[in-house]
Amino acid sequence: MSKVMPEGEDLRKAVKWISFQLEDGSGKPLNKLIEQAVFTFDLSPKDAEYLMSFFKGRK
Question: Euclidean distance between the first and final Cα of the chain, in Å?
Answer without folding.
Answer: 11
